[in-house]
Every structure is written in structure tokens, then in C-alpha cells.
Amino acid sequence: MGSRKTQLTVAVIGCGTLGTAIAAGILDPKDNKAYEIKRLVCTVGTESSQRRVETVFANHRSRLTVFTAEHNVSAVQEADVVLLAFKPFKRAEVFEVPGFKEALRDKVIISIMAGITTSELSRLSFGEQAVSKGEASLQSVRAMPNMAARIREAVTLYTSTPGTSKENIDFASWVFSQVGEAYPIPEKSFDICAVLVGCAGSLLLLAIDGLLDAAVAEGVRRPEVQNLVVNSAIGMMKLVPAGDHPGVLREKIASPGGCSIRALMELEKLGVRSAFTSAILAAAEKSKNMSSTR
Ligand SMILES: NC(=O)c1ccc[n+]([C@@H]2O[C@H](COP(=O)([O-])OP(=O)(O)OC[C@H]3O[C@@H](n4cnc5c(N)ncnc54)[C@H](OP(=O)(O)O)[C@@H]3O)[C@@H](O)[C@H]2O)c1
């Protein structure tokens, strides 16, 4: 990829929730200085998903093709960059299709499959033997975005296979910067950091659900307070990147003899803090083992 605006064909293999969000980001980028998506080829599992993607991107019809999975190989063949965005458990099925691995050989691969390491990507693409003999060389980036990509507010972590060029890593970073913020991270800390950005949101949503139950118990309807609760939580959280330490902030909010300290003491009594820690550690453990579960 050169220093002038680079025109690229991108294939999204598995254009589901996240694939669609990322495709929307690069088709209509916030930063259009360096790259332009000349063509986007998407694949999905079913015809109903094919219609969904065609409808979502109706405005980009002239540079978009949506296929079902039987066309994964030709989609990859057409592309400069391939985004692997199907579910990790599907990987053997997708990679075992004759011609798929071969089609990937000279492409830049970006994988968002949770728990799939860059070595597993090399193994899938070249086979065990080639990897152990050091004959596998992939230009690939492993990334972990989150669902907020749908509103372009994701945090994405990424790492790359050794030997991946700076320009290819820069492109991957650009892709995820179109749907939020992108941060490079070493692969050794990927599992814990990935679950923090990928799963922690669902834990916090569970907390929100519990808070809303209290409103209902006190006779207030959930929809009346849902956005108030969520928006006040978002506002409070934003104080942290603005410079407030979370622990200090919590102490400031909990005034002597007040309501907040009572609520916090209740949560500590119920072991909520260590429950969050255990939940994330369990998720990180699962992430570490996913590449070896075939
Ligand atoms: N969800 C998250 O918050 C999150 C966060 C970080 C990373 N991830 C990772 O992102 C990836 C996508 O997650 P998602 O939530 O977007 O899943 P999703 O909505 O289920 O999307 C998966 C897509 O793959 C398609 N598909 C199924 N079989 C296929 C095949 N053989 N070839 C090509 N496409 C096929 C599905 O089509 P049909 O629906 O028609 O079968 C669907 O469009 C996963 O690997 C996940 O680990 C997810």
C-alpha cells in the first residue's frame, strides 16, 4: 500500500452484527484521507442475511456484492484485505472449503474472531506442519472490537502476526478507527484485555438491569427510568478519562452518613467486586483456551 490514497477491495467473511458495523464504518469513513474502499464483497450464512446486508447498504450498491457462504472462496479471491468476522466455532468449516486457504495466501487478513490467536490463524491457513517448520508467513491482524462499533464508539484492541508490515497494520488500525478508537496491544496480554473490552459491557448491563429492578420494586416503570439510569452512568464514567481516579471518585460520591455509602457497603457484603473480578477471569480463561478447542 503506497503513501497516496489507496483504493482497496475488502471482503467481509461473516457479515453479521459486527461485520456489518465495521463495513458501514469503512464504506462511509470519518477519515477518508488515506484509503478508499473501491469494492466491498460480503458473505453470510443464509439468504435472509444476504437480503439484510443488501438492504443496509442499499446506498452503496454500486460497489457492494453480497454472497452466501458458498462463495467465500471467490469473495476472498477478489479482495486485497479479508475481514474474518464469522463465529470462531465456524472456523474449521470455513477454512476446510477447498481453495479457501490458498485464496488467503497473498491477502491481508484481519480477524475479529474472539479467542483466536495469530498462531491459530497461521495454523488454519497453512496447517500444523508448515507452522512448526516455520514455513507459514501471514500478513494478519487479530482484533477485538465491541458491539459499540454499531454507533462508532467501539474500543478495539489489536495485535499482529510477527512479520506483518507496518502499512498493513496501519490499514487495520484505520479500519477500527472508523468505528471508534483502536489500540495496539501485545498478544501476551490480549486475552484479559480483550474480555475487558469485549465482555465487560455485558456485565455492566447486568448491573443496570439490577438497578432498574429496584425502581420497579418501588413502583416506577422500567422505561420511565431506563435512559436516566444509563445516561447518568455514562456521564459518571466519563469523569474517569477526564482525569478522576475511579477509587477517589467513588469516595467523593459517598458522603459521610449518606445513601451511597450504604449502597456500596451492601454490594461489598454481597461480594460484588470480587464477583466482577471472577467473571472477567473466567472469560479470559475461556478466551485463552478457544484456539485449542477445535
Ligand atoms: N458480539 C460481540 O460483541 C463481539 C465482540 C468482539 C468480537 N466478536 C467476534 O466477532 C465475530 C462476529 O460476531 P457477531 O456478534 O457479529 O456474530 P453474528 O452476528 O452471528 O455474525 C456472524 C455472521 O457470519 C455469517 N456466517 C455463518 N456461517 C458462515 C459461513 N460459513 N461463511 C460466511 N459467513 C457465515 C452469519 O450469517 P447467518 O446469520 O446468515 O448464518 C452472520 O452473518 C465472532 O467471531 C465473534 O467472536 C464479537
From TrEMBL:
NADPH binds at residue 72. Keywords: NADP, Oxidoreductase. InterPro entries: 6-PGluconate_DH-like_C_sf (IPR008927), NAD(P)-bd_dom_sf (IPR036291), P5C_Rdtase_cat_N (IPR028939), P5CR_dimer (IPR029036), Pyrroline-COOH_reductase (IPR000304). SUPFAM superfamilies: 6-phosphogluconate dehydrogenase C-terminal domain-like, NAD(P)-binding Rossmann-fold domains. Residues 187-290 form the Pyrroline-5-carboxylate reductase dimerisation domain. GO terms for molecular function: pyrroline-5-carboxylate reductase activity. One of its GO terms (biological process) is L-proline biosynthetic process. Pfam families: F420_oxidored, P5CR_dimer. Residues 9-115 form the Pyrroline-5-carboxylate reductase catalytic N-terminal domain. NADP(+) binds at residues 13-18, 43, 85-88. Belongs to the pyrroline-5-carboxylate reductase family. This is Pyrroline-5-carboxylate reductase. The lineage of its organism: Eukaryota, Fungi, Dikarya, Ascomycota, Pezizomycotina.
